[in-house]
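Pipeline run #58 for the internal structure catalog. This entry was flagged by the ingest filter as a single-chain record with no existing model, so it goes straight to prediction. Upstream metadata was stripped on purpose; only the residue string is passed forward. Reviewer on rotation: M.T. Logging verbosity set to normal.
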Amino acid sequence: MVRSIGILMLGAAAVLAAGVSGAASGSVVVDRVVAVVNDEVITMSDLQREQQKRADGKDERVVLEDMIDRKLQMVAAKRNGLDATEREVNEAVADIMKRNNLDKAQFETALAREGLTFDQYRVELREQMALSRLANKYVRTGVAVEEAEVRTYYDRNHAQFSLPEEMRVRHLLVKVPAGATPAQVAGVQERAGALMARLQAGEDFVRLIREAGEGPTAAQDGDLGFLQLGQAIPEIDDAAKRLKPGEYAGPLRTEDGFQIIRLEEVRTPVRPFERVKEEITRLLFEQKMENTYRTFLQSLRSESHIENRL
């Protein structure tokens, strides 16, 4: 239930101590010690149960190191008076049941689906509470991110906040009348071809749009603005992506008529700093927390007696 009801704190779920395990046939498998942490031990059965409860598929050696770290933290928590009392555990359990609208029988049923008894859950919860308090006191305290750090990260990692590439396109539309005959279509195509020839001869595109352009964007000198791939009509989209800025394509036959386009510019916009400031702050805070946590664990290990026998 620590895993499913939502009590997520520093450290993994606790492993219950065990000595020997009995098979269904009645045979007995002798357990063995795989690690010694000061005056406490971790057995192979402890390690196997922890692996069964995890979904990350970590190697047993990595899992064992995690278990050693947790034992060290629990010792530190008790030494510093951060262990949870029976009353605090009772209150936490009551609050969890209330928030999930469960009575004790329903709560125990939910725990059973997670492979836990009520007493086992209390052990896990008590440990999680102690580990969280330890982290608050020795890891989170003093960890802060200044805005200057956030700005520096943003300036050095623009690519991380880039938006899809955009193209700014200008076009000249010569419309084909609705219900036009083949001869009329050919005439419009010929007129568009003549305009293209004038462009290739060096005439100004905007002036030609003002002279001969049709359609709703003619008043804006044919400027379609910045478009991502897929936002323009397919004919313009396909032609524009093959151009370099300043190059023309056309006349292109489209639903409305014949079009001449020019690729004005290509850009890769970046999300503004203010929109990503909180995201970066969280990222940097988590990085600092991780570094502080690793340093704290190393200090616990340096002052402890640890034997890894795996």
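catalog note: Residues 273-302 form the longest helix (30 residues).
catalog note: The CA atoms of residues 88 and 127 lie 12 Å apart.
status: ready for reviewer M.T.
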